[in-house]
Amino acid sequence: MREETASPQETHAGAPAASRDARAGAAERVPHRVAVLVLDGVLPLDLGIPAQVFTAVPGRPYEMTLCGRRAGPVPTAAGFAVTVTAGLETVRRADTVVVPGYAPHLRPVPAAVLDALADAHARGGRLVSVCTGAFALAAAGVLDGCTATTHWLYADDLAARHPRVSVDPRVLYVDEGRVLTSAGVAAGIDLCLHLVRRDLGAATANEVARTLVAAPHRDGGQAQYIKRPLAPAAENATLAPTRAWALTRLHEPLTVRRLAAHAHMAPRTFARRFVAETGTTPLRWLLAARLDRARELLESTGLAVDQVAERCGLGSPSNLRLHFRRALGTSPTAYRAAFTAADPTGPEPPSIGD
């Protein structure tokens, strides 16, 4: 089976944010307001993820504020306090609200907080959770009728407590458009980078990922956790060098056999190890990487669609259009129109989060 025909494994992948009439210059564009809602017992690493990602974006298109029930110190799960500068009114007015995980996760969330989350959602804001932050979104009612995820350890609790939410414990993150949820810790990085990619394009998201020394793109549908026995020491070598090698050769024919040869493994052993290490198959990983490269080329060059298809390894314009439609819900031409092309006189990028 050729890798070009593999289906991308992506959970509710969001199409690019596209406000066609938002064409104001970058200097005049109002920053996208991100409110990070810090609840009692917040997990410090979950809190640091959105703070780091959204402040690392070049040009500062996001304006981030730490919020709580009221301004002042908020205790963390690690025993120290974090000082927030704003209360719930900022949450209500935000364009995007991020709720980091907190512990204990079954502790009732104050009614005032739930009201603010519901109000933000009702006025069109985008709501995002990391790890157990999904329990707060579910309690506010904004996950009713949606698919959501959380850390695999707590997925059963979320499903039992909120039966109107379809909980998927297997995936890294779920994008339902205006409501997005992620699994624990590292998956929060993936989700925040996904938001940057959705808002500002693959090139910007990849630049932020490089700054953070993070994986540039992991599909939401990749597995959170693969249960497996400890491998012997000889098998503990990572396949990261082979993945890095493949990323420089996406325009070439890449098969499992060729990837395995680079890793000095038998193809079946390589495929098994690849899934164990990444949570996805080699062909699905290749397809996601090729789509990401196509997005970068569409954003940053004036190459024709057939040239983009060739350079990213998808072969033909029809194959590129097929996989673009499946993964992103749009066409390459429409995607390019929504983001900045190579021509400096062209339209500005769309408003974030529309």
TrEMBL record:
Keyword Oxidoreductase in annotation: no
Keyword line: DNA-binding, Transcription, Transcription regulation
Biased composition (Low complexity): 13-25
Keyword Manganese: no
Domain HTH araC/xylS-type: 240-338
GO molecular function annotation: DNA-binding transcription factor activity; sequence-specific DNA binding
Pfam family for this entry, one: DJ-1_PfpI
Gene3D superfamilies attached to this UniProt entry: 3.40.50.880, Homeodomain-like
Biased composition (Polar residues): 1-10
Classification via CDD domains: GATase1_AraC_1
Region spans: Disordered: 1-25
PANTHER family in the cross-refs: ARAC-FAMILY TRANSCRIPTIONAL REGULATOR (PTHR43130), HTH-TYPE TRANSCRIPTIONAL REGULATOR RV1931C (PTHR43130:SF3)
Full protein name: Uncharacterized protein in cpoL 5'region
Provenance organism: Streptomyces leeuwenhoekii
Gene: sle_17660
